[in-house]
Amino acid sequence: MTVIEAARELGKVVQADERYIEYINTKNANDADEELQNLIGEFNLIRQNLAMESDKPEGEINNEKVKELTAKMHSAYDAVMSNENMAAFTMAKQGMDKLMSEINTILTYSVEGADPETCPSEPPAAECSGSCSTCGGCG
Protein backbone atom coordinates (compact mmCIF):
# COMPACT_ATOMS: atom_id res chain seq x y z
CA MET A 1 0.00 0.00 0.00
CA THR A 2 1.34 3.46 -0.89
CA VAL A 3 1.21 6.43 1.45
CA ILE A 4 -1.53 7.99 -0.69
CA GLU A 5 -3.55 4.79 -0.61
CA ALA A 6 -3.15 4.66 3.17
CA ALA A 7 -4.29 8.29 3.40
CA ARG A 8 -7.38 7.46 1.36
CA GLU A 9 -8.11 4.53 3.69
CA LEU A 10 -7.66 6.86 6.67
CA GLY A 11 -10.14 9.22 5.03
CA LYS A 12 -12.68 6.40 4.87
CA VAL A 13 -12.12 5.54 8.53
CA VAL A 14 -12.50 9.20 9.53
CA GLN A 15 -15.79 9.37 7.63
CA ALA A 16 -17.03 6.32 9.56
CA ASP A 17 -16.09 7.87 12.93
CA GLU A 18 -18.98 8.99 15.15
CA ARG A 19 -17.42 12.47 15.50
CA TYR A 20 -17.43 12.95 11.74
CA ILE A 21 -20.99 11.68 11.44
CA GLU A 22 -22.14 14.05 14.21
CA TYR A 23 -20.28 16.93 12.54
CA ILE A 24 -21.95 16.28 9.17
CA ASN A 25 -25.39 15.82 10.72
CA THR A 26 -25.16 19.08 12.70
CA LYS A 27 -23.74 20.91 9.67
CA ASN A 28 -26.70 19.75 7.59
CA ALA A 29 -29.11 20.78 10.35
CA ASN A 30 -27.52 24.26 10.33
CA ASP A 31 -27.86 24.50 6.56
CA ALA A 32 -31.54 23.52 6.76
CA ASP A 33 -32.35 25.91 9.63
CA GLU A 34 -33.94 28.92 7.89
CA GLU A 35 -34.01 31.00 11.06
CA LEU A 36 -30.32 30.37 11.67
CA GLN A 37 -29.44 31.19 8.07
CA ASN A 38 -31.34 34.49 8.39
CA LEU A 39 -29.49 35.28 11.63
CA ILE A 40 -26.14 34.54 9.95
CA GLY A 41 -27.11 36.74 6.99
CA GLU A 42 -28.07 39.57 9.34
CA PHE A 43 -24.78 39.19 11.23
CA ASN A 44 -22.78 39.28 7.97
CA LEU A 45 -24.63 42.37 6.74
CA ILE A 46 -23.96 44.23 9.99
CA ARG A 47 -20.31 43.15 9.87
CA GLN A 48 -19.98 44.44 6.29
CA ASN A 49 -21.55 47.77 7.23
CA LEU A 50 -19.20 48.07 10.19
CA ALA A 51 -16.20 47.28 7.97
CA MET A 52 -17.27 49.90 5.41
CA GLU A 53 -17.69 52.53 8.11
CA SER A 54 -14.38 51.63 9.76
CA ASP A 55 -12.52 51.70 6.42
CA LYS A 56 -13.44 55.32 5.74
CA PRO A 57 -10.69 57.94 5.95
CA GLU A 58 -10.05 58.97 9.56
CA GLY A 59 -11.94 62.25 9.47
CA GLU A 60 -15.03 60.69 7.85
CA ILE A 61 -15.63 57.84 10.32
CA ASN A 62 -18.82 58.25 12.32
CA ASN A 63 -17.78 56.94 15.73
CA GLU A 64 -21.37 56.77 16.97
CA LYS A 65 -22.33 54.65 13.98
CA VAL A 66 -19.31 52.39 14.59
CA LYS A 67 -20.33 52.01 18.22
CA GLU A 68 -23.94 51.26 17.25
CA LEU A 69 -22.95 48.75 14.57
CA THR A 70 -20.51 47.06 16.95
CA ALA A 71 -23.27 46.59 19.52
CA LYS A 72 -25.64 45.28 16.85
CA MET A 73 -22.97 42.90 15.58
CA HIS A 74 -22.36 41.50 19.08
CA SER A 75 -26.10 41.07 19.57
CA ALA A 76 -26.47 39.31 16.21
CA TYR A 77 -23.51 37.06 17.04
CA ASP A 78 -25.10 36.12 20.37
CA ALA A 79 -28.35 35.28 18.56
CA VAL A 80 -26.49 33.03 16.08
CA MET A 81 -24.53 31.27 18.80
CA SER A 82 -27.57 30.72 21.03
CA ASN A 83 -29.43 28.87 18.25
CA GLU A 84 -29.70 25.21 19.29
CA ASN A 85 -28.49 23.93 15.92
CA MET A 86 -25.46 26.22 16.02
CA ALA A 87 -24.70 25.14 19.59
CA ALA A 88 -24.84 21.46 18.55
CA PHE A 89 -22.67 22.18 15.50
CA THR A 90 -20.11 24.05 17.61
CA MET A 91 -19.77 21.06 19.94
CA ALA A 92 -19.54 18.62 17.03
CA LYS A 93 -16.94 20.80 15.31
CA GLN A 94 -14.83 20.84 18.47
CA GLY A 95 -14.91 17.03 18.48
CA MET A 96 -13.94 16.90 14.83
CA ASP A 97 -11.15 19.47 15.33
CA LYS A 98 -9.79 17.38 18.23
CA LEU A 99 -9.82 14.23 16.09
CA MET A 100 -7.98 16.01 13.27
CA SER A 101 -5.46 17.42 15.77
CA GLU A 102 -4.79 13.91 17.11
CA ILE A 103 -4.30 12.53 13.60
CA ASN A 104 -2.00 15.41 12.68
CA THR A 105 0.02 14.96 15.89
CA ILE A 106 0.57 11.25 15.23
CA LEU A 107 1.59 11.95 11.63
CA THR A 108 3.93 14.75 12.70
CA TYR A 109 5.63 12.59 15.32
CA SER A 110 5.88 9.76 12.80
CA VAL A 111 7.51 12.02 10.20
CA GLU A 112 10.01 13.05 12.88
CA GLY A 113 10.92 9.38 13.42
CA ALA A 114 8.75 8.44 16.40
CA ASP A 115 7.08 5.04 16.59
CA PRO A 116 3.52 5.51 15.23
CA GLU A 117 2.27 2.81 17.63
CA THR A 118 3.50 4.56 20.78
CA CYS A 119 3.89 8.25 19.99
CA PRO A 120 1.46 10.62 21.73
CA SER A 121 -1.75 11.66 20.02
CA GLU A 122 -1.93 14.93 21.92
CA PRO A 123 0.32 17.81 20.88
CA PRO A 124 2.86 18.87 23.51
CA ALA A 125 1.59 21.48 25.99
CA ALA A 126 4.22 23.98 24.93
CA GLU A 127 6.39 23.97 21.86
CA CYS A 128 10.14 24.10 22.24
CA SER A 129 11.50 27.60 21.69
CA GLY A 130 14.95 26.25 20.88
CA SER A 131 16.49 27.99 23.86
CA CYS A 132 17.40 25.67 26.73
CA SER A 133 17.71 28.67 29.07
CA THR A 134 13.91 29.16 29.03
CA CYS A 135 13.07 25.47 29.11
CA GLY A 136 11.40 23.59 31.93
CA GLY A 137 12.71 20.32 30.53
CA CYS A 138 11.83 18.04 27.69
CA GLY A 139 8.75 15.93 28.19
How would you explain this protein's 3D organization?
- The chain is mainly alpha-helical.
- The chain has a single domain, classed as YheA-like fold.
- The protein is built from 5 helices and no strands.
- Helix 3 (34-54) runs antiparallel to helix 4 (63-82).
- The chain is elongated and about 60 Å long.
Short description:
The chain is mainly α and 139 residues long. It has a single domain (3-110), classed as Up-down Bundle (YheA-like fold), CATH 1.20.1500. 71% of the residues lie in helices and 0% in strands.
Topology:
Blueprint (H helix, E strand, L loop, with lengths): L2 H14 L1 H15 L1 H21 L8 H20 L1 H28 L28
Give the overall pLDDT as a whole number. Answer: 90
Strand content: under 5%
Amino- and carboxy-terminal Cα gap: 34 Å
What is the alpha-carbon Rg in Å? 22 Å
How helical, in percent, are the residues? over 70%
CATH architecture verdict: Up-down Bundle
Order of helices and strands: HHHHH
- Tell me the number of helical segments per DSSP (H or I, 4 or more residues long): 5
Report low-confidence residues grouped into runs of 5 or more: none
Number of separate domains? 1
β-strand number: 0
Task: Indicate the overall shape.
Answer: elongated
Biggest sheet, open or closed, and with what strands and sense? none
CATH class: Mainly Alpha
Output the CATH topology.
Answer: YheA-like fold
Structural class designation: mainly alpha
Descriptors for this entry?
139 residues; mainly alpha; YheA-like fold
